[in-house]
Amino acid sequence: MTNHKQSKVKIVLPVLFTFGASLLFFQADAQADSSQPTNTNAQVVAATDANTQNNNYQSLNVSTTQENTVSAQATTQSAVAANTNTNVSDGAVELNTSAVQAAANKPVVSTTPSYSTNQYNVSAEPVNGSASGNGSASLNTAGLTASQKAFLDSIHDGAISTWKQYGVLPSLTAAQAIIESGWGQSSLAFQYHNLFGIKGSYNGHSVTLPTREVYGGHSVIINDAFRAYDNNSQSVQDHGYFLVANSRYHNLLWKTNYRDVTYLIRADGYATDPSYTTTLNSVIERYGLTAWDQEAFDVNTGHIDDLSIRGNQLHISGWHAANSYNSNMHHFIILLDGNGHELYRTEVAGVYRQDVQNAYSNADISGWGGFDISIPYTSNFAGKDIQVVSRYTYNTNGEINGGKDLFFTPVSLNASAGFLDNMSLDAKTGNINISGWHVADASLGKNYHYIIVYDGSKKVELGRYLVNSLTRNDVANVYPGVYNAADSGFSLSLKFDSALAGDQIQLISRYTDDPAGNGNFTDYWFAPKTFNDNAAFLDNFAIAGNSLHVKGWHAADQSVGKKYHYVVVYDATKKQEITRQQVSNSSRSDVERAYPNIYGSGNSGFVVDIPLTAAMTNGDQIQLISRYTDDPAGNGNFTDYWFAPKTFNDNAAFLDDFAIAGNSLHVKGWHAADQSVGKKYHYVIVYDATKKQEITRRQVSNSSRSDVKQAYPNIYGSGNSGFAVDIPLTAAMTNGDQIQLISRYTDDPAGNGNYTDYWFAPKAFNANNAYLDNVTFANNRVHVAGWHATDQSVAKPYHFVILYDATTGREVKRQLVDTVARPDVAKAYSDTYNAGGSGFSGDITVNTAALQGHQLQVISRYSDSQSGEGHYIDYWFKPVNVTIK
């Protein structure tokens, strides 16, 4: 080998292919012709019954409208006696009683609904569905050891990937890996997965090993860095990129004949061994490695499983397997007419096909190349030869850009179309009003027109009704060449029944030559509709006095036949019911105006006051459920609406007063809390926030607070939330720490147990104010008068005046003084402890001559010791000059 492997190359790893469902997009111009819309329920609701939801409310079943059509073989339906639209006072017909009972006794069909018109199911083979290969071949592993087979497995995916990514023939990659790594057993390959001896580093990883090199004709052993990989696949990928990064090997890329490639790689200087090409060919042929080449080459094939009319939808399903694909591409289905003109295109979501995956497991897209779409069947398609084109492309508009097209054999469709102008529930009358039209070339000679009501969920016909054809000039204008277009209209009024609620209800328009609605017929299946609209709103969901006040409305199609209405209070945190209460419905004309097509909307109101319990105000998420049921106890078959949960944990308070008053700490305020329900004991706790310890607690009685009730009407207990208490002062409250009040509601007489607290802002009671009214000096006497008021004098009964020589820094003398009343100080500092008795006055005998000219400072001290030491609080007055006259 030469030193061609020393250059460092950048590694580009392949992008792993993933394919998920995507939204189906239709071009706007493809929707110009009217077609039956799908009814989408915009309300997020929970529609449940006794079989799908237990009484613990473990899950929330969201009711939505199915968008897929359901089907039934008309020839296998049991004949039901025809009803005419004439024998009910308001013009509405009723469902067939026996058919309804049969439907009620049948389970919902759980398999995926299918569809058949008995006329238009077709299969189409692709025109260009096959791709040329490199000749047939298969891998030959006869005689290989288990280790050698495992080695081939370890490099297989990487070899295929390097062809797709770089154009390096897989058989070449495999043969080189076998030869240069000794089936992966060389030390460099076995320990570091370096199969090709490439030097340098890979993503910063390398290993230094001795290697023999030739310099100046001499063979020497040196230490050099070789790339280290995590696995064999990385090494194969790096090898592919190496050939791409070095331009001298570009002549062998994307060539499909292995003999050309093995010749070129030796000629390009990859190896100096003259027999290198022969050796490679021998390995490729001996082990049938061209099988990997065929696997990597292009695949572009597919099949149309169905192209047929389903009601007012053109259904197209099939698959398209191709190698020219990656995960950034879009899959489009394009429809052409017989002249090659495009009629329609849409991007489609992948539908997984295990059968295709099994057959084309090595295609870039196979299993997820399935497609199944229904598009509006319009005059664009009627009477034309329709050719389906499946396209993979990078372009979001479906234009060609990479990927491959697959053209399927054209299919001819007979003209048959219909539209439902209306299929809606009238909340006022309780009827389903139906109107629409159906045109069909095959209706010639079929003079009886039936509308069949079909339960697609249970595969049961519920009734059929002979209708008169109505003039529809608008349809004739759109379908001028279709038989019966001018007389294609119909209308019907049908009594709403519980059998119609919740299931997929599909209307079938049938033209037949049989008075009973059978015989020779042509059907049009309209898009199904589920009458499961479920809407509600809470006007009020709040605490009012001792009750949980609930007011709102709930209208639901599936409430038909369910005469009991319950409001359920549910703990969404613990997932358990708290209580339930039956309610009576009331008139809601506003709801009827807003939701005229939901059953019961005009009488959907309810209001109830539910006694509060601690379970409703414990901080959990509380959810209301409005339930219509056929069971007096509130179970049975039911339809629920789950309102958004709410936590009743409002907790508000305010201190009107928190101050020292005489020998007490005076506290006044209010505290209202939802979670005080069931907690009949109210405590005020004095807490040292600095030391983080309780000082004392006092039980209080609540008092009326109409002002709080007015401000907080929806907090439990707000109207009786007031409290006032005087707590004897202690030194612990006035030691300078932050003192915090806690208002506590509890179920424990001692103030513990289960409780709800409100912590007020802390406050330090450390006021310390004083004033020297007078200080005079005479022979052997100092006269001092003034006042000193301080919160921290609590429990410090000894009041000293200390003379301090600020010049020498020593105490001169201290003297216990009597308390002097100071109403002026009390008025100015009403919230300071001892302000009213803060005065002092006295003569202190000292050697004033020794102090002449010194700075003398007066200190007022309150102490708990007769000596003036112990615990004390001082006030240092400004120094004064000692002058004796």
Largest sheet: 6 strands, antiparallel
| Terminus-to-terminus distance | 118 Å
Global outline: flat
Could you report the average pLDDT, rounded to the nearest whole number? 84
Low-confidence stretches: 1-89, 109-136
Task: Give a structural overview.
By secondary structure, the protein is mainly beta. 13% of the residues lie in helices and 36% in strands. The chain is built from 13 helices and 44 strands. Strands 1, 7, 8, 10, 11 and 12 form a 6-stranded antiparallel beta sheet that branches. A hairpin with a 2-residue loop joins β29 (651-661) and β30. It is flat, with a radius of gyration of 46 Å. It starts with 24 loop residues before the first strand and ends with a strand.
In short:
With 885 residues, the protein is mostly beta strands.
Give the SSE map.
Blueprint lengths: L24 E2 L56 E2 L12 H8 L41 H21 L3 H12 L5 H6 L13 E10 L2 E10 L4 H14 L12 H10 L8 H11 L3 H7 L3 E11 L2 E10 L7 E7 L5 E6 L6 H6 L10 E7 L8 E9 L11 E3 L3 E2 L3 E11 L4 E10 L7 E8 L4 E7 L6 H6 L10 E7 L8 E9 L8 E5 L3 E2 L3 E11 L2 E10 L7 E8 L4 E8 L5 H6 L10 E7 L9 E9 L8 E5 L3 E2 L3 E11 L2 E10 L7 E8 L4 E8 L5 H6 L10 E7 L9 E9 L8 E5 L3 E2 L3 E11 L2 E10 L7 E8 L4 E7 L6 H6 L10 E6 L10 E9 L8 E5 L3 E2 L4
Parallel strand pairs: 2-16
Antiparallel strand pairs: 1-8, 3-4, 5-6, 6-9, 7-8, 7-10, 10-11, 10-12, 13-14, 14-17, 15-16, 15-18, 18-19, 18-20, 21-22, 22-25, 23-24, 23-26, 26-27, 26-28, 29-30, 30-33, 31-32, 31-34, 34-35, 34-36, 37-38, 38-41, 39-40, 39-42, 42-43, 42-44
Helix pairs in contact: 2-3, 2-5, 2-8, 3-7, 6-7
